């Protein structure tokens, strides 16, 4: 009897050892580095929350100890120029961040565009029978629902209203980004007319069927790209991370899907992971060169 219990005990003990060994084997087969630190800076705009968390997760999968740091816009640029942060994927150019680029361009490394096709303008639901700001007459109570007062988007929207004769009696109503999207959603739910100041990329273009109104005078609606910048010396210090950042490029649908998932309740980390799982082919393109660098080193 005692020998049988001893035998059973040995089997149980062996099973526990094997189980613990299996649980402890969390080796990341895709890792190219062993806990190297890298810090990404970003501003808390919906676009930059989405893009930075995706890039951060990709770098983590390669073995990096990645820090994502939220900063005010001007401080973000200063942190890259001073070397306090390693990189950012958050530069809107040529207009939005033009002044910051002019100030810091000699002290930062410009890696290129990561997203093309950014745009601002008057936006309406597609069911409205207007295609240009020149078509507007008495729709939507002659009101454009704007965002925060003092923003460049609102200033351009006001200039449009003041320039076109058919908009003489129109008003640009300032509010906030959140209030604007709330009013937009309520109007669409009731199939009512509404005109808002809008921009892409934004999750609302994934959730609703919307269109930009043409603006022939070119006051609003200029295209912008989002670019990646790094601190000087990152390429020499960490060519693997630099390569991933340099090769990071995606489309409007990609970023807007991540943004929409966050808006609907997912954490940025969850939304980033879900997008990576569903788009491994794109991630492989971003990391291919980095893997070659790792093999050669």
CATH third-level topology of the largest domain: D-Maltodextrin-Binding Protein, domain 2
Figure out the total of helices.
12
Mean pLDDT: 90
- Radius of gyration of CA atoms, rounded to a whole number: 25 Å
CATH superfamily of the largest domain: Periplasmic binding protein-like II
User: How much helical structure, as a percent, in the residues?
Assistant: 40-55%
Structural class: alpha/beta
Please give the CATH class of the largest domain.
Alpha Beta
What's this entry about, in short?
The chain has 297 residues and is an alpha/beta fold.
Could you characterize the architecture of this molecule?
- Residues 8-26 have low confidence and may be disordered.
- The chain folds into two domains: 37-117 and 224-296, Periplasmic binding protein-like II (D-Maltodextrin-Binding Protein, domain 2), CATH 3.40.190; 119-212, D-Maltodextrin-Binding Protein, domain 2.
- Strand 5 (143-145), helix 5 and strand 6 (171-173) form a beta-alpha-beta unit.
- By secondary structure, the protein is α/β, with parallel strands linked by helices.
- The protein has twelve helices and nine strands.
- Helix 2 (46-61) packs across helix 10 (252-263), helix 2 crosses helix 11 and helix 9 packs antiparallel against helix 12 (280-296).
- The strands form two sheets. Strands 3, 4, 5, 6, 7, 8 and 9 form a seven-stranded mixed beta sheet that branches. It has a two-stranded parallel ribbon with strand order 1-2.
- Helix content is 46%, strand content 20%.
Key terms for this structure?
about 300 residues, alpha/beta, D-Maltodextrin-Binding Protein, domain 2, 2 domains, 7-stranded mixed beta sheet, two-stranded parallel sheet, 12 helices, 9 strands, about 45% helix
């Amino acid at each position: 009897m005692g020998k049988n219990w001893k035998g059973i005990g040995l089997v149980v003990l062996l099973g526990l050892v094997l189980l613990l060994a299996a649980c402890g084997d969390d080796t990341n087969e895709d890792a190219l580095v062993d806990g190297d630190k890298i810090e990404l800076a970003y501003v808390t705009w919906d676009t930059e929350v989405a893009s930075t968390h995706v890039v951060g997760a990709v770098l983590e999968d390669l073995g990096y100890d990645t820090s994502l740091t939220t900063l005010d816009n001007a401080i973000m640029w200063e942190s890259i120029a001073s070397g306090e942060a390693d990189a950012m994927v958050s530069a809107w150019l040529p207009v939005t961040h033009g002044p910051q680029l002019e100030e810091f361009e000699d002290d930062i490394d410009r890696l290129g565009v990561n997203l093309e096709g950014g745009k601002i303008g008057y936006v309406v639901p597609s069911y409205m029978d207007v295609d240009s700001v020149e078509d507007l007459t008495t729709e939507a109570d002659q009101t454009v629902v704007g965002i925060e007062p003092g923003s460049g988007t609102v200033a351009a929207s006001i200039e449009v209203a003041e320039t076109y004769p058919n908009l003489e009696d129109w008003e640009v109503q300032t509010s906030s980004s959140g209030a604007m999207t709330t009013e937009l959603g309520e109007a669409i739910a009731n199939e009512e007319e509404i005109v808002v100041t809008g921009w892409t990329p934004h999750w609302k273009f994934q959730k609703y069927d919307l269109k930009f109104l043409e603006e022939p005078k070119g006051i609003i609606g200029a295209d912008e790209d989002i670019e990646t910048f790094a601190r000087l010396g990152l390429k020499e210090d960490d060519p693997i991370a630099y390569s991933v950042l340099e090769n990071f490029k995606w489309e409007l649908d990609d970023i807007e899907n991540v943004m929409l998932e966050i808006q609907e309740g997912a954490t940025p980390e969850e939304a980033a992971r879900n997008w990576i799982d569903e788009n491994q082919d794109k991630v492989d393109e971003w990391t291919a060169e980095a893997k070659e660098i790792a093999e050669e080193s």
